[in-house]
Amino acid sequence: MSKGTGILREVNKRKLLSLVRQLKRTSRKDLVAHMGVSKNTVSLIVEDLIGTGMIEEVGVRTRSAKGRPKIMLQLAEQAYKSVGVLVNEDNIQVTVMHYNGNILEERKKDCSCKDISKAKEAIVSEIKDMQARHGQILGAGIAIPGIVNSDQAIVYESSRLGWFNEPFDLKKEFDLDLPIFIQNRVRMNALQSLEQTGTMADSIFFLQVSEGVGGAFVKQHQLLSGGSWTAGEVGHIPVSEHGPQCPCGQTGCLEVMISELAFSKRLEQINEKRLDLPLTSFIPDQVADIAADFGNNLGKALIYIMHLMNPDQIIIDSPYNKSKAFTDACLEKVQSDALRIPAAMTEITFSEHKYDQVTGAALAVFFDFEHGKF
Ligand SMILES: [Zn+2]
User: Fold this and answer.
1) Is 81-190+357-367's fold the same as 198-350's?
2) d(CA 254, ligand 1 centre) in Å
3) Which of 121, 239, 274, 335 has the most CB atoms around its CB within 10 Å?
4) Tens digit of pLDDT for each residue in 194-204?
């Protein structure tokens, strides 16, 4: 077999695994149709993957007209797993995910992560432990709050963790036999949102509101990094002239105006009791006013994104999505102030799903594998 054939077979193998993951249960015939390759190619890869314990045949579900049993395929229990890690100030969250998306184990471990060497040691010890207890770990993804160069494994800046220009190549530093990569925590969820919403859009902007506000631009399943890995940092678009000062130095940044922290501060101002996020559809009127204000500010930022990047679709993950006051105010602002064409053609989706960053980190390992990143 020539080198070219070997690479092609590997590409097809990953494509097939990706399809089995997404379709959950499928047949050789369906795989041929989805992949656009010959029946023989699919059969060979399937036999190979059954042999290595990645996929398995299941029952005789239906009988075709000719009376032949239809054998279905699914991921086997011993298929790949991945480890996702989320670094917080006082702890690290760890999850082990099966290739079919099921969470096999979740853990939270206390750690003062502001001390970077402590954080690294805790992460490595967790990964090693998970690797020993769950076989077939394909890789580990580490989600970090801040600006991260994933290609060179450097954390440029994490003001939350107090890390600046820190090399973070754990595989090399700790001599591990496992692919490990780091990524900004919001970007970890961007590809996940594409798959979850089943969007067919060519380009999307994913915007996430949590303790902070971040985003990522994705074109044809590729995350745009930009020249200094800050593409999509929408949290620092100023949206209010008289807003509070942001740690970045500007006033009225989107992040200080609509983050979860901003929400609890606004509640305090009106003496409303603490409200748990995400907001439900039944919220008191005073809170609806805050939600509308937040929606209006988000709308202002979306207009910049639409004019600058012009994505086909914007997917918003925020704890206020269930509030009609929030979504209406946002859409009204966009419709009234954006240029007519992007206002009419950009699809704005308020996601029903709340993305969880540690799960995103685990899933990102599978996406990178399927796209041949390692
Ligand atoms: Zn700012």
Assistant:
1) yes
2) 7
3) 239
4) 888 888 899 99
What's the gap in Å between 253 CA and the centre of ligand 1? 5
Tell me the CB-side half-sphere exposure of residue 217, using CA atoms within 13 A. 17
**Cα 255 to ligand 1 centre (Å):** 7
Phi, psi values for residue 157, rounded to 5°: -160, 130
The full set of domain ranges for the chain reads 3-75, 81-190+357-367, 198-350
Q: What is the pLDDT of residues 52-81, one digit of tens each?
A: 999 999 976 555 556 666 789 999 999 999
- Give residue 110 CA to ligand 1 midpoint distance, Å: 29
Residue 120, C-beta contacts closer than 8 angstroms, at least 6 positions apart: 168, 170, 173, 174
Q: If you measure from the C-alpha of residue 126 to the centroid of ligand 1, how many angstroms do you get, rounded to a whole number?
A: 34
Which one of 3.40.50.2300, 1.10.10.10, 2.40.30.110, 1.20.1260.10 gives the CATH number of domain 3-75? Answer: 1.10.10.10
**How far does residue 159's CA lie from ligand 1's centre (Å)?**
12
Q: What does each C-alpha distance from 254 to 38, 208, 245, 265 come to in angstroms?
A: 51, 12, 11, 15
Ligand 1 centre from 256 Cα, in Å?
Answer: 7
CA 262 to ligand 1 center in whole angstroms: 13
CATH of 198-350, one of 3.40.190.80, 1.10.8.60, 3.40.50.1460, 3.30.420.40: 3.30.420.40
DSSP-derived pairing of the beta strands 81-87 and 137-144: parallel
**Interval between CA 258 and ligand 1 midpoint (Å):** 12
pLDDT tens-digit readout, 298-357: 999 999 999 999 999 999 999 999 999 999 999 999 999 999 999 999 999 999 988 999
Query: Regarding beta strands 137-144 and 180-184, do their DSSP bridges make them parallel or antiparallel, or are they unpaired?
Result: parallel
CA distance 48 to 28: 13
Q: How far is the CA of 338 from the centre of ligand 1 (A)?
A: 23
pTM, two decimals, is 0.91
Distance from Cα 337 to the centre of ligand 1, integer Å? 23
Give the Å distance between the CA of 309 and the centre of ligand 1.
20
- Centroid of ligand 1 to alpha carbon of 275 (angstroms): 25
Tell me the CATH number for domain 81-190+357-367.
3.30.420.40
